[in-house]
Structures are given as C-alpha cells and as structure tokens.
Amino acid sequence: MTYRIDNTVPLPERKAGPEFKYPYLRMQPGESVFVAHHYVNVSAWNKRSGFKFTSKQVCEHGVDGRRVWRIA
User: Which of 14, 49, 63, 67 has the smallest CB count inside 10 Å?
Assistant: First the structure.
C-alpha cells in the first residue's frame, strides 16, 4: 500500500479549550458566581486551574446554593 503525501491541506483551527458548565476560568480575582447546587468542589478547581477559589453556602432569592469567589 502506498500513501499520498499532501502539502496543501491546512491544519484545522485549534479550539480554545473545553467548555465548562461554570465560568470559573473566566473569572477575575474578586468576582463571584452563585451556583444553585448543594455541592461545589472548589478544591478540585484550585488544583485544576492554578487559581484560588473559596465558597460559602448561601440562600439567594429563596434558592439554596453556594457562592464561589475567585480570590487569586
């Protein structure tokens, strides 16, 4: 079997990265987001992203959840 070598096929455009459900990677220090769930694994995001996050359990507009802040 022989293979044809092409030099006119461009590389496909690289995607920016996977889309995540929550905007943690787009957040700047001091920004926060409310997550209407009972569990948010901030420790995993700290390890995965290299950023620092903290969260607190809150009730906003009658909805229980957690507010996640990027702190560094």
Answer: 14
The predicted pLDDT at position 25 comes to: 87
- For the chain, how big is the Rg over CA atoms in Å? 20
Domain that holds residue 64: 30-70
- 11 — pLDDT class (breaks 50, 70, 90): confident
Do the domain assignments include residue 62?
A: yes
Structure confidence at residue 14 (pLDDT): 67
- Rounded-to-integer distance, Cα 65 and Cα 36, Å: 4
Q: Judging by DSSP bridges, how do beta strands 63-70 and 53-60 pair with one another?
A: antiparallel
Domain count for the chain: 1
Q: Which residues contact 52 (CB under 8 A, 6 or more apart)?
A: 46, 70, 71, 72
Question: For the whole model, what pTM was predicted?
Answer: 0.69
